[in-house]
Amino acid sequence: MLWRQFPSCLVLVLGTAIACDRVVGVDGDFEEVTGCEAFGNTCLAPPPADWSGPGILFDDLNTVTTCPSVFPDPPEPGQILGTSMSASAPKCECACDPSDKAKCDNLQVFSNESGCPAQGTPIFTAKEGVCALVGAVGSPAVSFKAPLVLKGCTPREAHDIAPPAWKQPALLCTRQFAGSACADGICAPPIPAEAQVCVYKVGDEACPAGPYSVRTLYYTHVTDERACSACTCGNAAETCTGGVEYYISTLCTGTPDASASISSCKAPPPAGTHALYKATLPDNLTCSPSASTASGDAKADGPLTVCCQK
After folding, report:
1. Nearest CA to 217 among 266, 144, 168, 183?
2. Residue 214 and residue 39: Cα distance in Å, rounded?
């Protein structure tokens, strides 16, 4: 294989130019052409002062979703631009799941008339698993108020906040042009047919004078402040059951001397008796979730002016 050196290029004798400003003509002579055009490239006008580019813009993302190898770099990795955006209102919903931290509230004990026709007067409070002294009751009967279930449910967010979507999405692709000068400015690789050649500048700007005159204001990102208020759960619909055991022992140990279901109406224990409340949590706790309120909005942000050739 023979190579021949000419004043301004190196060519393959029986081939086309590799990198020069002359190519072999059809008649075997060397014909003068520009180095940029010799390889199917395009000489583009340089960007005006304070503008970036030139780059290529794809405004049909049905056919192009990533930057081509000849213009491989978006201004930011994976960045899609848009002229505006749409964002639906959040759908805010709460739910409640049974909690593994549920426990029974304290048991309230009341003095009462025989048959317990009404709630009566509170005489003492029994905490689950704690031995408590019962004073003189002074009434023919005692009754109980079924304790509430504390921490019966855990709130769960069931919100639906759909991602915002660009209107008229576009992909802007750039490349480095170091050492790529040509007679009219910058020597660029072949431009894909579906792309526009453009310059760009951060902000909402007018297009500069010159060939880059077709203006579109894009936005680079979305500021999304849509949110739903926190979820909470009300008390469980069910209440605790269980019973009270009475002991002469001050430690409530051994065999209880008497007992009563908290759903019963019983004669009071003797004065000086100690009571031990043994609670039973209900199965399948259900709680009412709070309402959740939507707030905030989403807006297109980061204006970027893109000016393209006609």
Report:
1. 168
2. 28
For residues 169 and 197, give the distance between their C-alpha atoms in angstroms, rounded to a whole number: 17
User: Residue 17 is encoded by which pair of tokens?
Assistant: 């130019």
Structure token pair of residue 171: 């992909």
Which of 116, 131, 102, 122 has its CA nearest to residue 280?
102
Helix (H), strand (E) at residue 140: none
Query: Residue 249 carries which side chain, given as an amino acid letter?
Result: S
Q: Give me the residue label for tokens 């009571």.
A: 275
Q: Structure pTM?
A: 0.66
Per-residue pLDDT tens for 28-56? Answer: 444 455 478 767 788 899 999 999 999 99
Cβ atoms of residues 3 and 12 within 8 Å: yes
Beta bridge partners of 147: none
For residues 119 and 141, the answer to whether their CB atoms sit within 8 Å is no
Q: Which two tokens stand for residue 44?
A: 């583009």
d(CA 57, CA 51): 15
pLDDT tens track for 275-309: 999 999 998 899 999 999 999 999 999 999 999 99
Question: Amino acid identity, residue 2?
Answer: L
The torsion defined by the Cα of 256, 270, 116 and 238, in degrees rounded to 10, comes to -30
